[in-house]
Amino acid sequence: MTxxxxxxxIGLISDTHNLVRPEAxxxxxxxxxxxxxxxxxxxxxxxxxxxIAPVTAVRGNNDTGDxxxxxxxxxxxxxxxxxxxxxxxxxxxxxxxxxxxxxxxVTGHSHKPSISERDGVLFIxxxxxxxxxxxxxxxxxxxxxEGARATARFDSLLA
Length: 159
Description:
12% of the residues lie in helices and 34% in strands. The protein contains three helices and ten strands, in the order βαβαβαβββββββ. The chain has helices spanning 22-28, 43-50, 66-69; strands at 8-13, 33-36, 55-57, 74-79, 82-87, 104-106, 114-118, 121-125, 139-146, 149-156. The strands form two sheets. Strands 3-2-1-9-10 form a five-stranded mixed β-sheet, with helices on one face. Strands 4-5-6-8-7 form a five-stranded mixed β-sheet, with no helix packed on it. Strand 9 (139-146) and strand 10 (149-156) form a beta hairpin. The termini are far apart. The relative contact order is 0.22.
């Protein structure tokens, strides 16, 4: 009898805007991988995250310069049996991601944390882990993948 594959913990972060909060690094500690959904603003942010786990990152509308030009606007990765699409702005997802085999879409841009399911696709925005904007929370998220099943949550990083 084979043992089941352990669940994969994927840390979700977005809109850091050049701020690497210690609370974010602590939240992401122990992840198997990290997804950054854009508006990084400085490659040092990605370097700090990469010390925790492998990072998949996309370019946001505030990411400029040569380092940012090297980042894709869309990225996908497969974790166990779940394909994840990462884009900064939900408007760039395109029609019917499910028909392309996408099970999870991770976005940023709005700074508003949200989790919803549409047509069998899990949509997650971990919110912003960067400077506070308006009265929105400072947050990050966690995606748990077990085989073909994915669940997500977001958590406030500051009390």
